[in-house]
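TA notes, week 10

Several of you asked for a full example with nothing omitted. So below is the full record: structure tokens for the whole chain, then the designed sequence directly under it. When grading your own attempts, check the secondary structure regions first.
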């Protein structure tokens, strides 16, 4: 049910955007001449094509800027993830080594690790 509503909404949105684009194109059909002053090149195009070109260029520049920022954040996230994993491995090793040696963590905390060991603060 939700998929059909989503499809209908998507079709309606595309229809509205298409109608707005056509209205924009019809109302801005005059031809403009674009030239680069020091260079002898020039081009003539309808106003709406120039406006759409500028809009598309802005979208691409914005997308590139966001992509660069996200890639920097992803690199930082990856390095922090590696650091966290290394610290977790270190913690796991510290808890495994005493258990393998037959020393329980409760004995380690109380200071009774071996018979010859004495703590000065008892």
């Amino acid at each position: 049910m939700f998929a059909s509503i989503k499809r209908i909404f998507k079709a309606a949105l595309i229809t509205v955007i298409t109608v707005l684009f056509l209205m924009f194109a019809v109302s801005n059909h005059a031809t403009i001449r674009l030239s680069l002053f020091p260079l002898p090149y020039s081009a003539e195009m309808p106003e709406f094509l120039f406006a759409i070109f500028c809009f598309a260029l802005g979208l691409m520049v914005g997308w590139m800027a966001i992509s660069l920022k996200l890639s920097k954040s992803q690199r930082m996230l990856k390095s922090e993830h590696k650091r966290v994993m290394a610290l977790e491995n270190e913690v796991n090793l510290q808890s495994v080594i005493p258990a393998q040696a037959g020393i329980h963590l409760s004995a380690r905390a109380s200071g009774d690790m071996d018979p010859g060991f004495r703590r000065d603060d008892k």
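The mean pLDDT is 82. Use that as a sanity check on your answer.
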